[in-house]
Specification:
about 350 residues; TIM Barrel; 15 strands
Length: about 350
């Protein structure tokens, strides 16, 4: 049973769909297998990016609704041991605002088989915590940064913290958290002239850059397709300075299309969720900070595992409920369908 609009009301598991094969993995009716778990650790954030949330922030999730460290570690264990999850990506909000972060990471990295672990962060505070994150088992980082200009950074994020982000990436690289990946969103009339500069910066420092099309996940529901910088536009801007050729590397379920820069070996990625959907190869399942399974970033329904945890369900019961949820995963996100509805939860609450 699933709940619509993210309302966590379930108190038990679901009965197994008789059409679902006796397969322990997270499979769906289209033959996809989820091996990548995206975990939102908190909905809180210390930036206020204009394309994500209003200046005053949001009404944060009550602490009592958030999974405890022990609950979260238990669900990660179910995913790794029972469901075949191989990769863990920890997100937010801003995951470094989660108390007990290193404890959760260390517990996850100690699991057998050991999952590949990454963390997506805005980089604030990363300089002083990079070594601790590496020691806790994080393999690599994605850092969100949309501009190299301090005044623009302050305009986009409503915080004057660009130098903190730059220092954080350098510290992460020094701590062995590589490759450090930069995630950038281009905003029309704001920073869309910086694509070549961002790539030059990444090449100079040995970072990997990925541009992401702006998606309809803002809390204000103000996204407009006509204002979005498309993948084609991003590529055109980069080709004003660089020669790009499509990489022949097998993309698998990765969201980014990779391009060799000036013949390689350096690459740049473009994540075109809107104009070039890659749903057919999706290998992800998502867990929110309050214990809800989401089959898609744009799902309008959720399945409540927190209620099962707190209601005394066994690991086997939780695993089978998770399997049933993923069995019902839709073919695609539907952004380009006339009847598309933006999720009630904003990106900061879903996790990237």
């Amino acid at each position: 049973m699933s709940t619509d609009l993210g309302l966590p009301t379930l108190r038990g598991g679901t009965s197994r769909d008789p059409e679902r094969p006796q397969d322990p993995r997270l499979i769906d009716t289209f033959g996809r297998v989820a091996t990548d778990l995206r975990i939102s650790l908190t909905d809180r954030c210390n930036l206020r990016c204009t394309y994500c949330m209003p200046a005053e922030g949001l009404d944060w999730m009550p602490r009592s609704e958030q999974l405890t460290d022990d609950e979260l570690i238990r669900l990660i264990g179910v995913a790794v041991h029972e469901l075949g999850i191989e990769e863990l990506r920890f997100t937010g909000g801003e995951p470094m605002l989660r108390k007990g972060l290193e404890h959760v990471l260390s517990a996850a990295s100690a699991m057998e088989p050991r999952p590949d672990m990454s963390l997506t962060t805005n980089g604030i505070g990363l300089a002083r915590r990079a070594e601790a994150l590496a020691a806790a088992g994080v393999n690599r980082l994605n850092v969100s940064m949309d501009t190299l200009r301090p005044e623009r950074f302050a305009t986009i994020t409503r915080r004057d913290r660009l130098q903190d982000v730059l220092d954080g990436m350098a510290a992460a690289q020094a701590a062995g958290l590589s490759p450090v990946k930069i995630n950038s969103v281009l905003l029309r009339g704001v920073n869309d002239d910086e694509a070549p500069d961002l790539l030059a910066f990444a090449l100079e420092h040995g970072y990997q850059l990925r541009f992401i099309e702006q998606m309809p996940l803002d809390a204000q529901h103000g996204w407009e397709r006509t204002e979005m910088i498309t993948a084609n536009e991003i590529i055109e801007k980069l080709e004003q300075r660089f020669v790009l050729t499509e990489s022949d590397e097998d993309r698998g379920g990765a969201p980014a299309e990779k391009f060799l820069v000036d013949g390689g070996p350096a690459t740049v990625g473009v994540i075109a969720s809107v104009t070039r959907p890659f749903c057919g190869a999706c290998d992800r399942t998502r867990l929110t900070a309050d214990g809800q399974v989401r089959t898609c970033l744009f799902a309008t329904g959720e399945t409540d595992l927190r209620a099962m945890l707190r209601g005394g369900a066994t690991d086997a019961e939780i695993a089978d409920t998770w399997r049933n949820a993923m069995w019902g995963k839709k073919a695609g996100h539907g952004i380009n369908d006339p009847g598309f509805l933006q999720p009630a939860r904003p990106m900061s609450s879903i996790g990237g």
